[in-house]
Amino acid sequence: MSWLNHAVKNPIGAKAIMAVTGMMLTGFLVAHLSGNLLIFAGPQAINAYAEGLHKFPAVLWVARGGLLAAFVAHLYFAAYVTLGNRAARPQPYAFNNTVQATWASRHMVLTGLVMLAFIIFHLAHFTWRVTDPEIRAMGEFDVYQMAIHGFRQPAVAGSYLIAMAAIGLHLSHGIASIFQTLGLNHPRYNRSVRFVGPLLGVGIALLFASIPLSIYLGLVN
Amino acid sequence: MKLKLHVWRQKDKAAQGRMVTYDAENISPHMSFLEMLDVVNEGLITTGEDPIAFEHDCREGICGSCGVMVNGVAHGPQDATTTCQLHMRSFQDGEELYIEPWRAKGFPVLRDLVVDRSAFDRIIQAGGFISVNTGSAQDANAIPIRKAEADEAFNAAACIGCGACVAACKNASAMLFVSAKVGQLSLLPQGQPERQDRALNMVAAMQQEGFGNCTNQYECEAVCPKQISSDYIARLNREFIKATLTYPDAKK
Predict the structure, then answer these.
(1) What pLDDT shows up at residue B172?
(2) B189 and B236 co-located in one domain
(3) ipTM above 0.90, yes or no
(4) Within the 75-134 window of chain B, which residues sit less than 8 Å (CB to CB) from chain A?
(5) Shortest alpha-carbon distance between residue A133 and chain B (Å)
């Protein structure tokens, strides 16, 4: 397996793994989002969807395993790349300046860590149901009630919104980066990628954020 | 013009450096940035101080020797311009300037504003060389090359190896430099026999020299005096990934 180690433990291989796993995680977010948006279709739609997900446990666990593997690999290589980058400039500049790097691109570690903290909280909140005894008392697939109850609390809704901002920023740099890092570029569509990437990232975050926001504002009962 | 300069002074590689403040007076806006430093140095020499060491050679923007950070921007504020071709009219009278050497683990400071860029030479060497006598070069037009490819190769070949991409990169990555070299040769027929080895070996050499990883922020292309596009980095990524997955010598 030393060839594999050789293939990924270098400046481009590590980034390629991050790009591929990032693409998988983005794909998961899109799937998760499309399920979540069923909340606007009422309790029956989303609860039936939640129950449907558990109909084939084998498929569910394979998907969960793949997702976890992608997640761990993404984090591992993010740490590998970041530590390498820190070491590459031991002496910082007295006068720091930025010409064109976006805020999102310079704070991928920060937004990534916010997302990590959020994912742990989110799982504890709705999947393991250990943060709130009232949610614990609800049925496992009564997603609608859990969401309504959860997002009526300002602190919970607020923390979800902060996390969505982090996701929007992270993806607005990440999606376009997938193409650059994997070398998938061509003058014909380079400009579209640099435009659609951030648009898609912010769009995903806004649609996710619409759920806690509309519940908190009482638009969904 | 009158300017206040904060300049990095460091006696040698081992010494501890620090920023020192100087007043630059009687500066003409028509002077180049290096000529301004020459004037400051003349003043320093007359008062018996050590002049500020900086690297320079052609002073016409083609050798790649010069290059300092001016207020945190490699080669200063003007686009597509080396430090030697930067003129003082790009600055305001009375302006305060922070002048620092390139900062990267791969570019250790030798003295003041001079850094050791021989890491670039070693990366170039890793790209392969001809060690057999193949006779005299054949006629230039004997190998047909499409105009589009020739242009693209030439745009990469414009790299003068100044190191501004490394200096500007938030991660001190040398990806733009390496991508220009790999890109240029991957586009030309003469570069085909060692194409995969070159991509693999130059990236390995870059890593060994302690340069960072690309995080697609494109600070490099913004300061490149030859305006080399970050599209070459995508090309390098493609070359490297392809070479890794299809390398014919499977033992490696």
Answers:
(1) 98
(2) yes
(3) yes
(4) 98, 100, 103-106, 109
(5) 43
Question: Could you give the domains of chain A?
Answer: 2-216 (1.20.1300.10)
Helix (H, G, I), strand (E, B) or coil at B107: strand
Residue-wise pLDDT for A23-73, tens only, equals 999 999 999 999 999 999 999 999 999 999 999 999 999 999 999 999 999
The Cβ-side half-sphere exposure at A145, using a 13 Å CA radius, reads 11
Q: What is the pLDDT of residues B2-41, one digit of tens each?
A: 999 999 999 999 999 999 999 999 999 999 999 999 999 9
Band of pLDDT at residue A131, cut at 50, 70 and 90: very high
Distance from C-alpha of B174 to C-alpha of B213, rounded to nearest angstrom: 8
Across the A:B interface, residue pairs with CB atoms under 8 Å apart total 139
> Which ranges constitute the DSSP H helices of A37-153?
43-53, 57-88, 103-106, 108-122, 133-137, 143-151
Domain count across chain B: 2
Q: Which of B53, B78, B110 is the last residue of a domain?
A: B110
Write out chain A residues lying below 8 Å of B240, CB-based.
12-13, 183
Contact check, Cβ <8 Å, B234/A179: yes
Interface test with A, best of B19, B217, B245 (most A CBs within 10 A): B217
What domain range is B98 assigned to? 3-110
State whether residue A5 sits within 8 Å of chain B by CB.
no
Residues B29, B66 within the same domain: yes
Query: Same domain for B242 and B125?
Result: yes
